[in-house]
Specification:
- This protein is mainly α.
- Helices cover about 80% and strands about 0% of the residues.
- It has a single domain, classed as Amino acid/polyamine transporter I, CATH 1.20.1740.10.
- It is built from 19 helices and no strands.
- The longest helix is centred in the last third of the chain and has 37 residues.
- It is globular, with a radius of gyration of 21 Å.
- The protein starts with 10 loop residues before the first helix and ends with a helix.
- Bound molecules: tryptophan.
- The site of tryptophan has 15 residues, from helix 1, helix 2, helix 11 and helix 15.
């Protein structure tokens, strides 16, 4: 059985696959608006520290566990701690992705709507005020956003049902580089807008007085969300790694890719936010208000070019969202079809149905269900908050404790150093082990205590 498991061809292929899962709405949509809500540069510094000291060690813990066990979360736990409570950690890796998909699917639906609007050249023809107004009226209009959501979920289910892995891969490979090039181009344009310097200042000049305990927790949550940690995605990918591939460099490569992408997205969005007089704390709609504003502005002089950039941009966002969404759907489908009697097709439809239903709740929470709130957050916000700031760090915490304290020491060492063949990894090993055993668990718990007590 073990010998038949597929593997990635090279270190580069591993980094690309992991970065493909990591880079998605988390970088382009979530990062800029979270930065805006928690105060700019100071938040980014905490986010970078959290990525390096907490998220990266957990990335390594998941990778080590995945490659050593060559199996899914449930089986991985059973391999190294048979008949213990650890096997239940698997459930967290089923629940979290489905909840994440609830709000992720809604944003995927928004991207479809904005793609449609781009195709009709609406943003080029509209006025800045109308663009600003449009987003609010669209998401609160109850029915219309459900169309995008339903299309998004249907496409996701359809692809998973058809199992067209090759097709989707062929689609993803060119779109990520295109997205990267477009976002760099938009960042350059955005920085050159009149009044943009305030946005640049916002991103590079830290004001720690604005940073709250909640902000620190949000920075931790963002680093987990963006690196796809704590729900077993990275673990599964690592189970397809070859023994001679380098865990240290693949992890660092993926994290760098992911962080750089997010920071560039910040530079594409924030200067334009200030230049257009929008509020940085506008929340989940931030990019949907800012980007059309930029496209409108470019459209004043170059309408055709602007229209085309806007189409390509929202199409790329849609594809980036779709590929991450499929990896999230896959966790639940794989579980149901491997560990219960449901067949794969039926499992896909069941999980897809649950995701659609949760998505409807999240979508309606901007209109019909907007009265349902906890601590000022609507259902959409609660889903996001619970997943990113609680469930994912909890999953990561359990993984790092498992690898740091429960797994045989020698296995962890062999995996990280490729059986003592990588000199650099041998040198780094004590630091990484210290981070996995002490810094990451204590850091996560300390952050929780600081906000919830
Ligand atoms: N990291 C992806 C993003 O930034 C989303 C994602 C994919 C994810 N797989 C995940 C998030 C697993 C959490 C867990 O858009």
């Amino acid at each position: 059985m073990k010998n038949h498991r597929e593997t990635f061809g090279s270190n580069f292929a591993v980094i690309m696959a992991m970065a493909g899962s990591a880079i998605g709405l988390g970088n382009i949509w979530r990062f800029p608006y979270i930065v805006g809500q928690y105060g700019g540069a100071a938040f980014i510094i905490v986010y970078l520290i959290a990525s390096l000291l907490l998220a990266l060690p957990i990335f390594y813990a998941e990778t080590i566990l995945g490659r050593a066990s060559r199996s899914n979360t449930f089986q991985a736990m059973r391999t190294f701690a048979p008949k213990t409570l650890w096997r239940h950690v698997g459930f967290l890796t089923i629940i979290s992705p489905i909840l994440i998909m609830g709000f992720y699917g809604v944003v995927g639906g928004w991207s479809i709507q904005y793609l449609y609007k781009s195709l009709t050249f609406s943003f080029v023809r509209s006025t800045p005020d109308a663009i600003d107004y449009y987003f609010g009226s669209y998401i609160s209009s109850d029915f219309t956003p459900l169309i995008g959501l339903s299309i998004f979920v249907a496409i996701m289910v359809f692809i998973t049902l058809a199992g067209v892995k090759k097709g989707i891969e062929r689609f993803t490979k060119p779109t990520l580089p295109i997205l990267m090039i477009l976002i760099i181009g938009i960042a350059i344009y955005s920085v050159s807008l009149p009044g943009a310097y305030k946005g640049v200042e916002y991103l590079i000049k830290p004001d720690f007085s604005k940073l709250t305990a909640r902000g620190v927790a949000a920075a931790l949550g963002q680093s987990f969300f963006s690196l796809s940690l704590g729900v077993g995605t990275i673990l599964i990918y690592a189970s397809y790694m070859k023994k001679e591939q380098n865990i240290f460099s693949s992890g660092l490569g993926t994290a760098l890719f992911d962080v750089v992408f997010a920071i560039i997205a910040g530079f594409a969005i924030m200067p334009a936010v200030f230049a257009s007089g929008l509020e940085p704390s506008a929340g989940p709609g931030l990019i949907f208000k800012t980007l059309p504003f930029i496209f409108n502005k470019i459209g004043q002089t170059l309408p055709l070019v602007s229209g085309i950039i806007s189409i390509v941009f929202f199409f790329s966002i849609f594809i980036a969202a779709l590929t991450s969404a499929i990896s999230l759907l896959e966790v639940g489908v794989a579980y149901l079809s491997e560990e219960t009697r449901l067949n794969r097709k039926f499992a896909t439809i069941v999980v897809g149905g649950i995701i659609w239903f949760l998505g409807v709740l999240c979508s309606l929470s901007f209109g019909l269900l907007s009265d349902i709130t906890i601590g000022g957050e609507n259902i959409f916000g609660i889903f996001d908050h619970v997943c990113s700031n609680i469930l994912m760090p909890l999953g990561g915490l359990l993984f790092t404790i498992f690898v740091g304290w429960k797994m045989p020491k020698s296995t962890v060492y062999e995996e990280f150093t490729n059986n003592s063949t990588k000199k650099f990894n041998i040198k780094l090993y004590p630091i990484v082990r210290f981070l996995m055993r002490y810094v990451a668990p204590i850091g996560i718990i300390a952050i929780w205590i600081s906000i919830y007590l």
